[in-house]
Amino acid sequence: xxxxxxxxxxxxxxxxxxxxxxxxxxxxxxxxxxxxxxxxxxxxxxxxxxxxxxxxxxxxxxxxxxxxxxxxxxxxxxxxxxxxxxxxxxxxxxxxxxxxxxxxxxxxxxxxxxxxxxxxxxxxxxxxxxxxxxxxxxxxxxxxxxxxxxxxxxxxxxxxxxxxxxxxxxxxxxxxxxxxxxxxxxxxxxxxxxxxxxxxxxxxxxxxxxxxxxxxxxxxxxxxxxxxxxxxxxxxxxxxxxxxxxxxxxxxxxxxxxxxxxxxxxxxxxxxxxxxxxxxxxxxxxxxxxxxxxxxxxxxxxxxxxxxxxxxxxxxxxxxxxxxxxxxxxxxxxx
Length: 335
Hints:
By secondary structure, the chain is an alpha/beta fold. The chain contains 14 helices and twelve strands. The longest helix is centred in the C-terminal third of the chain and has 18 residues.
């Protein structure tokens, strides 16, 4: 049996190219395509619809929308619509976003665990299509709301909900209430062992098992026959995340001394020149610790480390100019 593998697309390519990559991945037996909804560049649901319309079997996930800026009823109607386009192929990935971006657009990320629980519970209830939903929470307020189909068939929408969790408290909550977790990238495989423990604690607290929770993981993957070119391709992105996203930074395993050096150079939003300058501080061994970068063989060996540490499906984020090489490298892979 081959290892399930997925592809992650962000905003480095045109939507037309992303559609082509999604179809190429489907033709090469990839399990899923996940579209980013991060920063303020490319909203995920529009390209997800494009992927759904241009493919036939590959699953399509949001990686990930945030739980703050979309009303739960609107989340449910959006993903119900996507399911109408690609029945049984849509995955709702949802996360708690990050600062300073959230604060800069007026969102106070207060009590994220409570908010996440309320959003997941209410969206799932709406997607069941069992009638009006009333939910009175601290954040979510629904008064007899339903997906009130008139012209379309009323049916339960088979849209699993995955939480993009990084911290261990959110990981425990995921084990309690979600169909799966989207494990983060820019972390070392050892991070996964802590994540598995937290997922299991949460799952067992409600009578579930760890095996009942799907565990795909975002993994930066820069593949090139020229090893140095592959490492350099991943270095810029790794530098940006280490400098700007503290929740990932805390899980990266990178030394505080290096992180402090990077923070002296980077702010948010950073210019390209600032990222390039900070990247010179990041050595090759840190790039390979937190990403699957190098020759095709090196990339496969690194991805296997994440699988051995609990990842069920690698979601490979291709860096570098040759996306098809990365897809080819992991086609029908049996580690």
